[in-house]
Specification:
heterodimer; A: about 290 residues; mainly alpha; MetI-like fold; about 80% helix; globular; B: about 400 residues; 4 domains; two-stranded antiparallel ribbon; two-stranded antiparallel sheet; 18 helices; about 5% strand
Chain lengths: ~290, ~400
């Protein structure tokens, strides 16, 4: 492809560059703008006069004396105790990722090595389950969970998220396991290993790239979930995303929308860091499903 | 045997780094090819017991938390909440006294405890005003209004309104996001290698962002006092233009959000596909005098077509459950989706409508399965090909 680049006419080159610039701005600007605005007062970020106020911080200077203010973060993290949902998010996402991976690697390995026809039917069932809208499943959980009195606590939510995550995890890990030559575990079996030993001592050590990639997606599912966490967690156990949603209901009216802006920026930062460090794995994970069929 | 081997070699070449490692350790464990000849048959197929031992936790989780809830939804959809037992209460505030009708919670709790599912309602949850609204449909068609009037009356019914938006979102966002992703992939592919990493980083942000957070960020910008909302007002010269006031604008902004957040997925997949376009085919096309457009049209696009079907099917399924943007943009006055209807029935703390939510859920599941049929057929074909 690269030699094709040299021969491009000037017009096309200008067009490509302009398009790329426009897209990159569209992708990045909303985040940059919100991060910038989170250090201003509401009168600037939602300025009725002109958005230049948000850039210069006119009202921020009038109200606080400086061009930047931490009032939003103070309100979210300290006054509204945003650190509680943050801790809950850490617990939920870590548990979901770890449990999903343990359960998923076992299942994915079995599916990749079985060779029987029912393995295919399990995969098909997983595909159907993967397509189920989460909210429809949630409407099935609520009543039984109320009855069993396990609604509102973190463990229930973690297990539900693990289960919802399973179909995707199974498919992804199954295709990673398929890419590891069968000869490897077969020679381990010949050497006298049991299936589980072959799995743990021979296959898992070479599977790390696949496990890390799948783990990233489990993490994202747990972290980004709004449907399950907002319906299954009680007020005091809420994680960050449903908390932000409930912020909107309670503080937008009180004129403290900046708390929500600060909370949103705080919830975005871990994702940025994640992409920064694991960009390669995320991209390879997305293509894994596609390129491998 | 030879076929199997060349296949696994091809896979090793194809899958890159992880596999190179796998092949490396295969060498360490001894010559696998030599052993393979002497292996008895039982290693080819995993014994049933071993298979189920390995997959049991995963199956159990899916059975308990995916299959059972679907059954539970199906059962719940046949029941209706108990009629509220009302009592009148007089409440006074500085502006005078009012008689309010309140739900007698003690009596309600007693009857709920006795019949937690509610009253049996048959299929009435499906046919009532909030769902298929058969009666209303009959009246609308009997009214003899023109097709325009009929359409607008049908769009006033909650279920059809949600269905319409869900379908429009699904079938507008998916192709447009794919086109956007394809163009970004082509453009990024022409960049100098050094800049591609940062460009990919920026490009996948809209996809990786929490859907609710992403839609909140955009909704604040589209707020009449936000940067885009204010710009739109001054561009259109209408000082009262806002998401709340204009249904058209709400739909357009929601679709924009959908394209913004879905485009990067197609981009990543297509970009990866572009790396595997056979260079010699491109070159021979060039020698044969193909223009840039022709080689894109006849070499690159056919090469990416299998990927495109995959992306389209996945995205259709995912877009069908569109939900968070409606909460994030507070768009429910102008646009609702099927998932949002279920959420709305469940979210009110004291009057959750499980029966109604379950009926909408069942119809959503049916919709998903209709969308899923092509995927299932494709997977089935692929599997049969692999086996044969």
């Amino acid at each position: 492809m690269s030699d094709a680049v040299n021969g491009r006419p000037a017009g096309l080159r200008v067009l490509t560059t302009a398009f790329l610039a426009a897209w990159l701005i569209a992708a990045l600007f909303p985040f940059a703008w919100t991060v910038w605005g989170s250090f201003k007062v509401e009168g600037d970020f939602f300025s009725r006069v002109s958005f230049w106020n948000a850039i210069h911080g006119t009202r921020t200077i009038m109200q606080t004396g400086g061009a930047y203010t931490l009032a939003g973060y103070d309100g979210a993290w300290i006054k509204n105790e945003f650190w509680r949902p943050a801790i809950n998010t850490v617990i939920v996402t870590l548990c979901v990722t770890c449990i999903s991976l343990v359960v998923g690697t076992l299942g994915g390995y079995a599916l990749a090595r079985s060779g029987h026809r029912y393995a295919f039917w399990v995969l098909i069932a997983a595909l159907v389950f993967r397509a189920m809208p989460h909210i429809t499943l949630v409407s099935g959980y609520l009543l039984p969970f109320f009855q069993m009195n396990i609604w509102g606590v973190l463990p229930t939510t973690i297990i539900v998220l693990v289960a919802i995550n399973q179909p995707f995890t199974l498919w992804m890990l199954h295709s990673f396991f398929l890419s590891i030559p069968k000869d490897l575990d077969e020679s381990a079996l010949v050497d006298g290993c049991s299936r589980f030993q072959a799995f743990r001592l021979v296959i898992i050590p070479v599977m790390w790239p696949g496990v890390v990639t799948t783990g990233l997606f489990s993490f994202l599912l747990g972290y980004n979930d709004f449907t399950v966490t907002s319906m299954l967690l009680s007020q005091e156990n809420q994680t960050m995303i449903p908390k932000i949603a409930s912020f909107l209901g309670s503080i937008e009216n009180a004129g403290n929308v900046m708390f929500a802006v600060a909370a949103v920026v705080s919830a975005t930062v871990p994702l940025f860091i994640l992409v920064l460090f694991f960009q390669r794995q995320i991209v390879s994970g997305l293509t894994a499903g596609a390129v491998k069929g | 045997m030879a076929r199997l081997f060349s296949l696994s070699r091809a896979i090793v070449q194809f899958r890159g780094r992880g596999l190179a490692m796998a092949a490396g350790s295969a060498k360490l464990t001894g010559a696998p090819g030599a052993c393979l000849v002497f292996l008895p048959d039982w290693t080819k197929l995993m014994p049933h017991r071993t298979f189920f031992a390995f997959i049991f936790p995963s199956l159990l989780a899916m059975l308990l938390f995916i299959t059972l809830p679907i059954v539970s939804v199906a059962v719940q959809s046949l029941f209706h909440e108990h009629e509220a037992i009302l009592t009148s209460v007089e409440s006074c505030d500085p502006f005078g006294c009012q008689t309010q009708t309140k739900v007698d919670s003690a009596a309600m709790a007693a009857i709920k405890k006795e019949h937690p599912l509610g009253q049996f309602a048959g299929l009435s949850n499906y046919t009532d005003h909030n769902h298929l609204a058969l009666k209303d449909l009959g009246q609308i068609f009997a009214s003899g209004a023109g097709w325009r009037g009929i359409a607008s009356q049908i769009m006033d019914l909650p279920f059809y309104r949600a269905l319409a938006f869900t379908l429009v979102y699904c079938f507008a966002v998916t192709p447009l996001a794919m086109v956007l992703g394809f163009i970004i992939a082509l453009a990024v592919n022409t960049m100098p290698r050094f800049w591609r990493g940062p460009a990919i980083f920026v490009s996948i942000l809209p996809m990786i962002i929490t859907p609710l957070v992403g839609s909140l960020i955009l909704s604040w910008m589209f707020n009449p006092a936000g940067i885009l909302g204010a710009t739109l007002q001054s561009l259109s010269g209408d000082p009262r233009l806002s998401l709340r006031a204009s249904a058209t604008l709400t739909w357009l902004v929601l679709l924009t959000y959908g394209i913004w957040t879905n485009g990067p997925f197609s981009f990543v997949v297509f970009y990866a596909g572009l790396q595997t376009v056979p260079l010699d085919t491109l070159e021979s096309a060039k020698i044969d005098g193909a223009s840039r457009w022709e080689s894109t049209r006849f070499v690159i696009i056919p090469h990416l077509l299998p990927l495109a079907t995959f992306v389209a099917l996945v995205q259709l399924m995912d877009n069908f459950r569109v939900f968070e943007p409606i909460v994030g943009f507070s768009a429910e006055a102008n646009a609702t989706s099927l998932s949002w209807l279920v959420y709305n029935d469940l979210v009110s703390q004291d009057a959750q409508q499980f029966g109604s939510a379950a009926a909408t859920s069942m119809m959503t599941i049916i919709g998903v399965i209709i969308l899923l049929v092509p995927v299932l057929i494709r997977t089935w074909r692929e599997f049969s090909r692999k086996v044969v």
